[in-house]
Each structure stands twice: as C-alpha cells, then as structure tokens.
C-alpha cells in the first residue's frame, strides 16, 4: 500500500489523537459545507475543553452546536455565533468564551497559518473593538492593524470528492472556509461524499492538494438547509 | 412621507452602473436586486464565496451546497465563479467590489459606522461587515434617520462600538440621501413630501443644507 | 452589449493607457505562461522607464528580454534574472536596476497587493541580504522580516481560456504567477488562447474571477521552450 | 575515494521515507529521483506549481505549458496537482514539504547556508532557495567538502552572503555525511576509503568525531 494512501475506514480512526484542550479548525459557513460526521464523532468521543476556530457554531441540534450539550467547547473563534439557545446560555453564564473575528480576517488567519506567515496587516477592524490592543501601523497614509495567524492541532474539513492521495475538490459554495482550514491543521482530516482513484481528478481543478491532508474518510451527509428560500418556477 | 423599504431599494438601485460588482447586505439592501434599472447589468458578490448570485432556486433546484451570505438557498447566474472565503475577502479587502450596500445603527460626520454591537445585548458577531466597510471605496449605508423615539442616528460621534472608522461617504435614510465629507453630512435629496426642517431636526451631526434640495421621485 | 464584456479586439486597445514610468506586473515563470503578445505590444509602443514585477526577465529575443533592446525597462523586481547577455550588459553599466526578491515572497507580495494586505511577515530572507533594512520581529521564538505588498498600474497575464466576462482558467504549469498578477493591477489585461461564452467555464474551476480583469484579448502564441528535455519512449 | 555524483544521489535517497513530499534542487539533487528505494513512494514538488512531478516527456508528449522549476519540460505523475506560485510557496513556507535537498557554496556550524551569491560575480538571483531553506524542517545540503584549491566549505562562519540563517541540520559532501547541532558539525558517516583524518583536515568549522565513524556502502 502506497505511503500516500490517506484513506481511513472508520470515524474513530479519522479523529484518533484528538485530546482535551486541543484547538480544532473547522470548515463550513453556517451549516453549508460543515464536516458533520467528524463533529458527531467528537461528540461521541466526549473530548473536552476544545477551542474551535470556525466561522459559525452551528445550530441547537446540528453542526458544532451539538458539542455544547456536554460542554465540550471552551472557546470559539468565529465571526458570527449564537444561532442557538444553548450557546447563548453558556456564553452568558461565562462557561463559554468567544473571540469574535471579522470573517475575512478569520479566513486570512487560517490561510496565513497554513502558509507559514505568522502575521499580516489589514484595515479591517481598525478603530473598532477588534483593533483594541493590536499594533497599528500606517502604510501609504492609511491605518492598519496587525493580525496573527492561526493553526490548529486538528483541522476538520468537508470535501465533495477526494482521491486516495488526499487531493480534494469542493462542491459549489460548500467550499467556503474548507480549503484554508485544510492547510492549517497539524493533522487534517477530510470527509467526502466520494473517494476516487489518483488520476481521476484533473490536476488543475484540485482545490486542496494532498500534501495538506493526513486522513480521508467517506461519509454520508444530511446537509441540513438553514434558510430554505425558493421562487415560483 | 418617509420612504418605504421598496423605495429605499429603488433609490439605491439608481446608484448602480452597468458592469458594477456589488455586495448587498442582509435586509433592505437585498431588495435592491429587484430594482436594477433597464439596460444595466450588475453582478452580485456574496461573501461566502460566490460572484454572480442568481435568483432563489425553484423547489426542484434547491441545493444545500448553494447558499448566499444570508444562508439562503440561491442559484448561480450565468458567468458566475465560486471560490473560497479567503479569495472572497481578498476581493473585498482589495477594493475590487464597486459598491457595497449595508445597514447600520449609527453613522457620524467623520464617516464612522456602528452596525454590529449594542453593549448589554447579546453580541452575535460582525460577520463580514468590518471587512466590507474597510475594503470598499464606494459604500451606501441605509438606515432609518431616527429611532422610534425620535433620536437621530446621524451623529457627531457614534455612541456604539464601531464597525469601521472613516469609511462611509453616502447614507440613504427613510428621509434623505446624504453625503459625508469634511466632517459634515451634506443633504443631497429628500424623500417626497419630507421637509428640510424635519431632516434638520432629526440630524444630530453637523448638516450642510444647500439652497435647493431636490425631492426624490419614484415612478 | 453587457457592461461585463471585457473583450478587446486589438493589442493597441489591450495596452491603451500604458505610460512611461509605470509599474507593470507580469505573469509567467521562465518563458512558460508569459503574456508574449502583450509584451510585444509594449515593445511596439516604445514606452520607457518601466518597472517590471516578474519572476524572470525572459531571454535575449523573447519574453521581457525584448524590452531591453530599446532600454524600455528601468527596474526589474524578480527572483531570478540574467538569462540573456543584454540584461547583464545593462546591469553592469548601471542602466538597469534590479531588486532581487525570493520567489515565494514575490508571489505573496503580489497576492497581498491584490488582497488589500499592505504587509506580512515571513522567515524567508531573515539574516540574509534580503532582510537588510527590513523590520525584524519574533513570533513564537522565531525571527521573521516584514515584507510589503506590490501593486501595479498594469498587470499583464497569460490565460488559457477566458469567457467574455473575464473569468480565466490557466493550463497546467503555465498558471504560475499569473493568478496573483491578475489581482494586483489597477488595469489587468489577460491574453488567452480561446474566448468562450459566459457559462461555458464551470464556476468552481475558474482560477481568476472576472472581477479582477479589465480587458481580455485572444492571441496566438509561440510558447517557446527553454529547456527541452525528453526521455526515450 | 570521494563519492561520485551518482553515489551522492544514492546516499541522499536513503533518507527518503514512504509518503514523503520532496523538493529536489537543480543539479545533483535532481538525480536523487533516479535512486528511490524499492517499496518507497515519494511525490516531487516543483516550486513553479506542480506537486507530483513525473519523468521527462517523450518527444510526442512535450508541452510548453508543462515545465519544472529548472524550466525543463516534464510530465505530471498520476495523482498530481497543479497550482499557482503563491499556493506552491504556501506549501513550502508553511512547512508542508517533508524533505528539501539543495546545493550550496558554504555551510557553517550554526546551520547557516550560502548558496546564491558570490560578491563581484554577476548575481542572477536566489529563485526559490531562500523560501525553501526557511520553510523546511528537514533539509539536506549537498556540496563538495572543499574547493578545488582545498579550501573547506564547512566553516565556523559562512563568508558569503547567506541564503538562510540557522536552518541547516544535515550536510552530505563527497567525503562525509554530517549533522549540524550545538554549534558543531557531527561526523556521522564517511565515504568509502576516505579517512577520518582527511575529513578533519578539510573541515574548517568545529567538528565532533565519534569513536567509530561508519563507512558508507554502495551496492
């Protein structure tokens, strides 16, 4: 078996090594493109005191929200949270810490983390509570703040198709934060809808090259819709 | 009379130019898409990673992997591109979006905007708003001119925590269209039947009123 | 005609507005994926005192090298130059300035320029001549230098296919610096082998979204090979 | 006897592990690809934007759009991915490449490396070398132990401008395999028939020599 075969056959194996107190970077936007089965596995494992870096925190009974039930999350680094009642309750009770981060800054922090860039400057958040305590510097007459990158002990990612080498493509807007998350984990686990053989994905269409990926697992997905909006046909 | 939500959207739509890439915030800004003038094409950018947002899907077209930044199911327009959040905000932060429309709680004479946080209330987060106001050259803020209790939202200094500093140049309220420059609001247009006096009364920040203030007209 | 139609029909139109003293960011690696006809047009226009940001400077009679003949280039910002005799001559005579920049830093400077990030930190070049005069800062016990981003008055890019809206895909390793260059020009001009209708490129396979592109032109290409290496079949 | 180019490549190849992503510099490092041990698969990263570099093309397969970092025509291996230069150096700078092999003019006891610039000679540029040495955890430098005039290239302090500071831990010369730690070269192996005395004589920087220095063997 090739040293590049990243496929694992159980969710236990997929999340092996996750320990209390670790930082986990998760892909997804709202409930779209979230690694729902990897999250469910973390619920099952009961790992505690986790820090999650994720744009959102799911809803009451789906996505990262399910990790609130047994208080598995210590801290969220997110741009928008609170689509669920339990989150609010734990936040107000001081049982949960939140570090609100502008969405674009969050995406760039993950990318920078994966790319060996420890910090960058952005105008986003200058003069706001987000900029408080951060270094301010002027470039070409405009003020910017310094933001540091983020890496995780684990990254959990939802792809569409992967080959056994861990090359991944995403489907439509389920891409979102997943490619950056994939680069920023010490151990990156990708769950996908379909696993194909190396060579089946076109080299120029691969969104996440296998070099970033440690484990690949095939799952089946509920893909819950948050805001079902339709027009008359 | 104060503008309706639809009239606000209609008035904003007049700021669109053919070939504009536009980001529309949640709420009233979204309605702008319904009033794009004849002969003008714009492409809607949705910050979750879609350039070229189409209409809502039909029942048959609904796809959980195809949503907009408001987490609503959408379709892709012809010629759309789909990309990561990092790429999406590279566009936004890099100033490539031609027009951003978003709501706010307060704006002030220095172009500051507060739109995401009311101390004492539960804070849900800023989402992409801070990136949008920091990245765009051309932003229209839309909001009611005053609170239900008659307190002005066009201020000398924002009282709420800011979303962005010194970045707003155009405001459309239910009463007026104003530009912000040189430390003042400049009254450009008023809603049909709304008097200059009412606008003066409901604007706490310094207001510059020209001799003639045209009334907006709606078909 | 749609406001999104970026297609121009002549190279004169494609490079209209280029003036003496401007900065031009060019895609390409060696002679692979270079905008050869846009470069030829600049030669024809005779524009002078140009600063080029490009990984290389072509060869004697192809690529950016042809702009040396009439001394159109004032300065090169590159990671590797000097594959041609004229370059060496002008450099030694002090007629040409070179700012050598590590390849990865150069790619990131272009990306940052397009992405509204005025500066970032990298370990690349710390303790070397590249780091001299640059701010040094420690993150997690390691030393990094601050590098500022690059933007250009023009970006010239070679794509494979574009639609009329300016959405571009690149072919194989002719991608290289082109996608970053495309984001970093005030005016971005892309020459391609084929122009297709909007909707013909799959949204998730587009490498450069049209929002970055101002002009698209169809060209025909020599595609010269620098190092022809073969194996026996 | 000093190692041949092929023997150097063979010895480096023994450092490969199954599943390694490897960047091979121009020159001798490129030859390593010819000696990948049985039962081991590696993927070659080429910094112009190719992960999974295959062999040179046949005459029929030659494609100007398919080159490696040495600007040679190549092919893509099965399972390859192709991406931009920014993505390629994100991989490199971010430490995702398992092994980097490159040449040098000098290395010193503090892990400094000089490989790109000889003052007074024409400077062509560093290409990707500075990114490669700054980004990789695991680097093997390969070079001759001494110049043609017998001057050591394993120094107390590099004399030439650096490519990277404090980043080199392993050096393979034509005479020996050495590790760098705690401010010294540690002699690990010697070329067949090369005496420890010769290595001591040709190493200017502090050299730690263990009691027994095994001789490399080649099939």
Automatic annotation (TrEMBL), chains A, C:
Example of a GO MF term: CoA-transferase activity
UniProt entry keywords in alphabetical sequence: Transferase
Taxonomic superkingdom: Bacteria
SUPFAM superfamilies: NagB/RpiA/CoA transferase-like
A family per Pfam: CoA_trans
Alphabetized PROSITE patterns for the sequence: COA_TRANSF_1
Keyword Transmembrane helix: no
Entries under NCBIfam families matching the protein: pcaI_scoA_fam
Family that this chain belongs to: Belongs to the 3-oxoacid CoA-transferase subunit A family.
Name by which UniProt lists this protein: 3-oxoacid CoA-transferase subunit A
From TrEMBL, chains B, D:
A Pfam cross-reference name: CoA_trans
Superkingdom field: Bacteria
InterPro entries reported in the protein's UniProt record: 3-oxoacid_CoA-transf_B, CoA_trans_fam_I, CoA_transf_AS, NagB/RpiA_transferase-like
Keywords assigned: Transferase
SMART domains (alphabetical): CoA_trans (SM00882)
MF-aspect GO terms: transferase activity
Family named by the database record: Belongs to the 3-oxoacid CoA-transferase subunit B family.
Stored PANTHER family: KETOACID-COENZYME A TRANSFERASE, SUCCINYL-COA:3-KETOACID COENZYME A TRANSFERASE SUBUNIT B-RELATED
Protein name in the entry: CoA transferase subunit B
Organism listed in the record: Amphritea pacifica
């Amino acid at each position: 078996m090739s040293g590049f075969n990243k496929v694992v056959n159980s969710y236990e194996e997929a999340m092996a090594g996750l320990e209390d107190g670790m930082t986990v970077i998760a892909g997804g936007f709202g409930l779209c493109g979230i690694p729902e089965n990897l999250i469910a596995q973390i619920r099952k494992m009961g790992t505690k005191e986790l820090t999650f870096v994720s744009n959102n925190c799911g809803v009451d009974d789906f996505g990262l929200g399910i990790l609130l039930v047994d208080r598995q999350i210590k801290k969220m680094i997110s741009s928008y949270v609170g689509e669920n009642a339990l989150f609010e309750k734990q936040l107000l009770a001081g049982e949960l810490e939140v570090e609100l981060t502008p969405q674009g800054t969050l995406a760039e922090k993950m990318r920078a983390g994966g790319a060996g860039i420890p910090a960058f400057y952005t105008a986003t958040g200058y003069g706001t509570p987000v900029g408080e305590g951060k270094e301010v510097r002027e470039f070409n007459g405009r003020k910017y703040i310094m933001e540091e990158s983020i890496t995780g002990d684990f990254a959990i990612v939802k792809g569409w198709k992967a080959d056994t080498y861990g090359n991944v493509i995403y489907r439509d807007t389920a891409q979102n934060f997943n490619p950056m998350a994939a680069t920023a984990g010490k151990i990156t686990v990708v769950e996908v809808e379909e696993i194909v053989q190396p060579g089946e994905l076109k080299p120029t269409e691969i969104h996440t090259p296998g070099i970033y990926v440690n484990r690949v697992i095939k799952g089946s997905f509920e893909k819950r819709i948050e805001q079902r909006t339709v027009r008359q046909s | 009379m104060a503008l309706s939500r639809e009239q606000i959207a209609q008035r904003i739509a007049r700021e669109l130019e053919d070939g504009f890439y536009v980001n529309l915030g949640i709420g009233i800004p979204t309605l702008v898409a319904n009033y794009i003038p004849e002969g003008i094409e714009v492409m809607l950018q949705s910050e979750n990673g879609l350039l070229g947002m189409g209409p809502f899907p039909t029942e048959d077209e609904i796809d959980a992997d195809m949503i907009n930044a408001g987490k609503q199911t959408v379709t892709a327009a012809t010629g759309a591109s789909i990309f990561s959040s990092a790429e999406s905000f590279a566009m936004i932060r890099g100033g490539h979006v031609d027009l951003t429309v978003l709501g706010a709680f307060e704006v002030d004479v220095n172009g500051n905007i507060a739109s995401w946080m009311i101390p004492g209330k539960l804070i849900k987060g800023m989402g992409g708003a801070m990136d949008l106001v920091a990245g765009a050259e051309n932003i229209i803020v839309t909001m009611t001119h005053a609170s239900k209790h008659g307190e002005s939202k066009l201020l000398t200094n924002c009282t709420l925590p800011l979303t962005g500093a010194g970045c707003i140049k155009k405001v459309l309220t239910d009463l007026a269209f104003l530009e912000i420059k040189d430390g003042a609001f400049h009254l450009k247009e008023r809603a049909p039947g709304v008097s200059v006096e009412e606008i003066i009364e409901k604007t706490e920040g310094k207001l510059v009123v020209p001799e003639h203030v045209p009334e907006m007209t709606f078909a």
